[in-house]
Design goal:
713 residues; alpha+beta; Helix Hairpins; D-amino Acid Aminotransferase, Chain A, domain 1; OB fold (Dihydrolipoamide Acetyltransferase, E2P); 6 domains; 7-stranded antiparallel beta sheet; 5-stranded mixed beta sheet; 25 helices
Length: 713
Amino acid sequence: MSTAGQPADGSRDPARRARQLRELIARHARLYYQLDTPEISDADYDALVRELQGIEAAHPELTSPESPTATVGAPPSPLFAPVVHHEPMMSLDNAFDLAELQAWVDRLGRLAPETTAADFVCELKIDGLAISLTYEDGRLVRAATRGDGRTGEDVTANVATVAAVPHQLAWPAERGPLPALLEVRGEIYMPAPAFEELNRRQIEAGQKTFANPRNSAAGSLRQKDPSVTARRELAFWAYQLVTVGREAPVATHSEALALLGQCGVPVNPANAVVHGVDEVFAFCRHWQEHRHDLPYEIDGVVVKVDDLALRARLGATSHAPRWAIAFKFPPEERDTRLLRIDVSIGRTGRATPFAVLQPVLVGGSTVSMATLHNEDQVALKDVRPGDTVVVRKAGDVIPEVVGPVLSQRPAGSEPWRFPTRCPSCGGALVRLPGESDTFCTNLDCPAQRVQRIVHFASRSGMDIEGMGEKRVQQLVDLGMLHDPGDLYRLERSRLVELERLGPQSVDNLLQALQASKTRPLSRLLVALGIRHVGPTGARELARTFGDLPTLVAVAGEDPERLAAVEGIGPVIATSVAEFFASPANLQVVDKLRDAGVAMAEPGVTPPAAGEQRAAAAAATGSSAGSGASAATMAGRSVVVTGTLAGYTREEAEEAIVARGGKSPGSVSKRTWAVVVGADPGLAKLRRAEELGVPVVAGDRFDELLRTGQLPGP
């Protein structure tokens, strides 16, 4: 797909294409910088600018001083009073890979040979809104946006509500007299927890959610009513000190950042002085890999020459300094065409809408499908087949559709309607009162059958290599599989006759099936797909009851005994009891037993009936009522960072949630504790230290879960 829906026809008529690009870029710059309502992703905007740069480089006669390639930002909005900057707030040139970053370093070496031995400062590129703070005699008197680089918007009243922005500088006496006029430049941003909370409030109010923290921050700052800004929990990092009308009291940029910190101005702690291009590369690679460890969004790294005198010799172009560059991470948002909206049916019957997309490279991989969550989210985002949409993929997160590009919506487009019939079996799709999810109520639905078997064979279940969704679908269509128990009845003579399955692949599959028979009871319980039972709950049930026959008997006699197990509680207990009350599920268990699938947890002896009752009574008494032990984390937010012995990240988070707590991905002032395992995220540790959040060693995690108390030293 060509960027922003326009043909890349510069090679046929470069003058015409250059005009098109300038109009498009000007329009999108206005939407982004003035109205905070961008219609295309940053990556697609960058692609427009790069295409125009390419045309102008190939055809110098088409260059213009008014071209977006030679200007900064966009004119300030008439909604705010104009502010002329003491010194221009320039933009930065971009490098989109390490080769372009190396080319920038090489250019610096040609301009000033001493640059080859110079130090660089690497800073995280915060995805927020550039701001200029003017201090007179140490007191904040004005705050302005970048605007067009020379004239910005006066947003002083709004910035004054941002707690992180100091109203008075704490100038260190050893630096001599306080300059009469100082300017601090930085980035206003919205932390991830605040963004999530804002969107939660929007959903509760039935209003549209915000696309990303950057737009939320910019929109919050440009409110005419400062009280609205004050409610949005904005934050600030400084990245430059400008001394107006006098020589800087420092010789390097790193010294300037340190001075800002002494003055009480927040400076990002991840900034670093590095030596040589190899260390620059290492810094960029590290943060590209760990960008999601941070409680705020970044989209790259800014690399700057540290020595201020050398910077002066390198100078600047019409719109950007030569001594700095922005290394942009691979885009996590891109625009593409939404071809259609389909509905998938999961193993529990839940019907989930998803977008079928024109394939696009985003977040380092090609995306052709993205989740739309549920009926309400489709309606709230109002995405329709045929729309150009913004797709987001952050790290390992499932791709999702952020929203439509309304300016490119086809004429006559109609809102999408959730189907009333299951696309697999034709049965009714039912939305229960008070729930956002829709379900196929036909338990014999082929799609549910396929997904139950896929889940059973998945890595978190019985880990049967070679039994993926396509293979399961093929075997179900041929009538060879009806439920997970049939996996162990597959015959080699029939398998070798199937398409795309040679003799060696058949042998490998049969070996994987044989190996899966030895999995412990805890894995089997996960594989069976009992609602609400994940790895942690399955492990507790297996450790308590020892084998599946004992668990089935207890579930049938008295589910309250299940609820007395640590980490289970009444909800999971009811779900387990209902699962084993189903004749169809018991038939599957019989098939698995007859096939020789292990039904016990290694090292655990099943208790006798009397011992079960005694253990249940003791647990109930000690926890002051069934299920109380499962609530040790009730109302508490616990962040896990690093690797914990005996737990995957998902299992650790599930253990917290199962006990009534929350396990968000970032540290905030609401965090009760941070559990630290091996190789933790340093940014989370620093944030915990800044906020005074208690840190718990990973080997004390089980104690934390059991007692609900912070372990002592």
